[in-house]
Amino acid sequence: MNKLLTSMFALAVASVTAFSAQAQEVKGDAKAAEQKIAMCIGCHGIKGYQASFPEVYRVPMISGQNAKYIAAALNAYKKGDRKHPTMRGIADSLSDQDIADISAYYEQHGKTDAVVPAPTAPDAKVAALLQKGACVSCHGDNFSKPVDPSYPKIAGQHKDFLFVALKSYKTENQSTWGRSNGVMGGIAKQFSNAELKALSAYVGSLEGELKTVPQSKFR
Fold it and tell me: Which segments are annotated as binding site for heme c?
């Protein structure tokens, strides 16, 4: 299994390198994004806002997230690698420049110089699950310093969102829900839903850099 994960990780790095080279062609303008984020604010700018499809969960915190990851996620919705009707519709409406601008905006949005404390050690069961999934090999120290900025920070993310996201990598043959990603799919399918819930609860309990910054559509 470790050999398989190593091979999958190498493939992911190669894919990320190719994406990063392409992403460098479009430079994001955070200031310009102020006129483009109205569609984001309705969900991601409200603390505790819950989505109801395919189940009830809090939408992810995106302020403080890596710009390259936000861009990668939006492009995945645009291509259909991530299936979600609302996000697909939003992503389809965005140009490459829009995606770069919005991603740059949310990376710096609400950012502070506060030092994130070291995480509380997990119990033995969760520690074994983290080792099995080799989670730190991509998401980095404290799960807040990914080895490549095209990977997400996950420390402190809503545990119910993390659980739904992880389950979505196991979802196949659905037209409106699921995520197609060879690396994350291979990892998530190793675990039962109960184990994914335990992983999500631990990672969500950590201190991190992600936050929801309340915003009004009417400014």
Answer: 40, 43-44, 87, 135, 138-139, 184
